[in-house]
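Page 42, continued from yesterday. The earlier attempt failed because a stray header line got pasted into the input along with the sequence. Redoing it now with the clean sequence only.
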Amino acid sequence: MKPLNIYDNWINYGYRHFAEVGPLAFSIKEISKQAGMSRTSFNYYFNSKAEFIEVLLAKHLNIVDEYGKKFRDKLPHSYINLLNNIDNYPVSVTFHLQLFNYRYIKQYNDAYIKGHELNFKNGILDWFIDFFGLKHSRQEAEKVYYFLMDTMYSRANLLREESRDISTIKYSEVFKDTLKDFLLVIKPGAVGI
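This time it went through. Structure tokens are written below.
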């Protein structure tokens, strides 16, 4: 039987490493060094770096889905709570930020979009349409949603550049400020968030 702790260590260290450096600088050698695990153990669990990255992407999408499900039944009232709790997931938000940054690579664009589709499934798009009072078709509302998310992630990139330790980043403030600015454009004179 395979010792799960070694496999889990590869996944956990790999997930954080991807969030820290993105896919282009992603290094099995560096993860091995950080985790104190042999490269042989990597080869035991994974056939290739590409396979390993696919496992990390699947882990990320599971985290996104679980996070959305926590708040799905409480929307719309818990959306601010959802934003406040985002700071409990700095590595996952930074991982998603890396997907945003590398959307020009199909694999990462697909994962970025899939993450948002999971959010749609969990009611975020419905909340978004209602909160901003959008009178668009659902398809048009998705475009507006992506515009907002792209703006948030662009702003979050600036925050990410300022911090070496991703576990200390407060993404909630960036997201709340972006929502407030967006609200002023969509609903001039609105009270805010």
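Notes: The first helix runs from residue 4 to 21.
Reminder to self: strip header lines before submitting.
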